[in-house]
Write a structure and sequence with these properties.
Helices cover about 60% and strands about 15% of the residues. It is of the alpha+beta class. The strands form 2 sheets. It has a 4-stranded mixed beta sheet with strand order 1-2-4-3. A two-stranded antiparallel ribbon has the order 5-6. The model has no long low-confidence stretch (mean pLDDT about 85).
Amino acid sequence: MTGFGKSSCDLEKKTVTIEIKSLNSRQTDIYTRLPNLIKGKDLEIRNEVISSLKRGKIEVSVNLESKEGELSTNLNAAVIKNYYQQLNEISSDLGLTLSEAIMQTIVRLPESLNSDKDEMDDEEWQKIMKVLREALSEVDKFRVQEGNAMVNDIKERILLILQYLDKIGTFEGQRLENIKNRLKENLNEFFNQENVDNNRFEQELIYYLEKLDITEEKVRLKNHCEYFMEVLQEEDSVGKKLGFVTQEIGREINTIGSKANDSGIQKLVVMMKDELEKVKEQLMNIL
C-alpha cells in the first residue's frame, strides 16, 4: 500500500534525513539512494525495510548534510593541475584552445574531489538506524490508515453480496412455477396430450427441478461470505487466504447463475459478480 515517512536527527558533523516512499506492489522492490559514507550498510537497511513493510515498491532516500562550517568534500589541487596540464598538452597538439569552461569538466573527473572519508562509528550508525525505524513507523501509519479504509470497503461489498443473496428467495417460488409451465407448454406443443404419461412426466419434472435447485449453493455462498468476514479480522497475513475464499464465493455465484433460468435472479448474480470483482481488486493490496 502507499505510504510516506520522514525523520531526521543531528550527528556530530552532519544532519541525517531519511525519506521513505511506498507504492502498491505484489512484489518487494526496494530502491535505495545512499551517500557514500553508508553505502556499505545497504543490505542492513534493506533488511530493516523488508522486516517492517513486507512488500511494495519502496524508495529509501538517505541524505547526510554537513553542518555549517563543516565541508564534506575538498578540491584535490594536485590532481586537478595534472588533469589541466595533460589537457593543455593534448589541445596544443591538436591546435585547440582551452577555455575557462574546461574547469567544469575537470572537477567531474575521477579523484578531482576528495570526499569526507570520516569513518562512522557505531553510535552514529545506531542513531541513523533509529531515524530509519521512525520513518518506517510513519510509513506504517499511512498504510494502517489506508488499510482500515480498504477493509471497510471490502466489508460493505461482501455485505452487499449477502443482501443480493437474500433477495434471490423472492424469485424462487415463481421461478419454479415458470419452469414447470414452460416444460408443459413445450410438451403439449410437440406431443398429443393422450400420448403423454403424466406419472412419468411428473417424475422427470421432479428430477429436472432437483437439478435446478440452488439451495445448496445459497447455503455455501452464505457460509463462504461469513468465513471471509472472519478471516478479514485476523491479525496475521491473510491476503492469500482471502484470495482462496473469494474463488469459492465466485464459484457458488457462477453455479447459481447457471442454474437460475430466471431473469430476476440473473440480474442479482451479475450484481454479485460486480461486487466480487471489486473485492478481488482490493485484495491485491493486502498482505
